[in-house]
UniProtKB/TrEMBL annotation:
The entry's keywords: Transferase
Name the record gives this protein: Sulfotransferase
Any one Pfam family match given in the protein's UniProt record, by short name: Sulfotransfer_1
Membrane-spanning parts: none
Gene that encodes it: LOC100846163
GO cellular component: cytoplasm
Species: Brachypodium distachyon (Purple false brome)
């Protein structure tokens, strides 16, 4: 349940400081355990705000994920798909994805609500596209009707990707500590199994995607996404190669080669933008984990997802 009224900033601070806390290993990022999930401390008020004040519209589309599971890619694909009638993919140099990072094209609910800037959402015309890393339980499900697209990824690859990403700001970060923190459930937005299972169990109303499937057949997944958000591709669009144009525009090679994604830092963070675009392959864990470590992690995953119908 949402805690008793805590409207003022002071009350919020009291609420946050009473929650269990820990630091992400090798960083100064403090996490707080709120309703069973380890959220970055500054996002706890965002979780409360989302639960209480977020007023979704019926045609809203929310991309949800754990960090390092393909959020940037899915944001780009969903934006290009939903904006295709205003911005033809492959139709010249005016496409926003050529000038802005994918994250700048899609508002981040967690940061908007944490910064008291959620009113910015009200002026966005429908259908709105937004993204979050929050678990489903932090979204106002009872005020439902909006569409959620979730992306998950093989957990060992997620952990490897996370280590590389964090290392771009913390070069000394230990690989073993990062993996341990992910698989003990205490990592950012974790436990990852509860995050994934929350969306998985709602998958009758959530479009549940997997990063590996997106890599295998991006075009088919873009079609699925377009149907789900109520904007299926017409025959004319198919014939004109619009799906291929979107896939090409959002490919790792294409995004990575753009000046906007090569230089500078992520908004409000000390991670270089280029750290978002690394290798983009399935199974990179074999290049990082000893077989014993991988086996131990697979056991944890097998145990946590047992009986759910979902496996990695
Ligand atoms: P790797 O570190 O394994 O390469 P997120 O966007 O959720 O932070 O996820 C980052 C992961 O997605 C990174 O994985 C990154 O390389 C990969 N990625 C980013 N853009 C991509 C794209 N356009 N196509 C495929 N993978 C992409």
């Amino acid at each position: 349940p949402v805690p008793a009224e805590a409207s003022s900033e002071e009350e919020h601070n009291v609420l946050v400081s009473a929650l269990p806390s820990k630091l992400v290993p090798g960083t100064q990022l403090k996490l707080r355990c709120y309703q069973g999930f380890w959220l970055p401390e500054r996002f706890v008020p965002a979780a409360v705000g989302l639960q209480r004040r977020f007023a979704p519209r019926r045609d809203d589309v929310i991309i949800a994920s754990l960090p390092k599971c393909g959020t940037t890619w899915l944001n780009a694909l969903a934006f290009a798909t939903m904006a295709r009638r205003s911005y033809y993919p492959g139709g010249g140099s005016d496409h926003p994805l050529l000038r802005l990072t994918p994250h700048q094209c899609v508002p981040f609910l967690d940061a908007l609500f944490a910064g008291g800037r959620e009113a910015q959402l009200e002026v966005i015309p429908s259908p709105r596209l937004m993204y979050t890393h929050m678990p489903l339980s932090m979204l106002p499900v009872h005020r439902g009707g909006y569409r959620v697209v979730y992306i998950c990824r093989e957990p060992k690859d997620m952990a490897v990707s996370l280590w590389h990403f964090r290392r771009s700001a913390h070069p000394e970060l230990s690989f073993a500590d990062t993996v341990e923190s992910v698989f003990s459930g205490g990592n950012t937005y974790g436990p990852f199994w509860d995050h994934i299972l929350g969306y998985w169990r709602a998958s009758q109303s959530v479009l549940f995607l997997r990063y590996e499937e997106l890599l295998r057949d991006p075009a088919e997944n873009v079609r699925k996404l377009a149907r789900f958000v109520g904007l299926p591709f017409s025959e004319a669009e198919e014939e004109a190669g619009v799906v291929g144009g979107i896939v090409e525009l959002c490919s790792l090679e294409s995004l990575r080669s753009l000046e906007v994604n090569k230089r500078g830092y992520m908004d409000g963070l000390n991670f270089p933008r280029k750290a978002l675009f690394r290798k983009g392959v399935p199974g990179d864990w074999v290049n990082h984990m000893a077989p014993e470590m991988a086996c131990r992690m697979d056991e944890i995953v097998g145990d946590k997802f047992s009986g759910s119908g979902l496996s990695f």
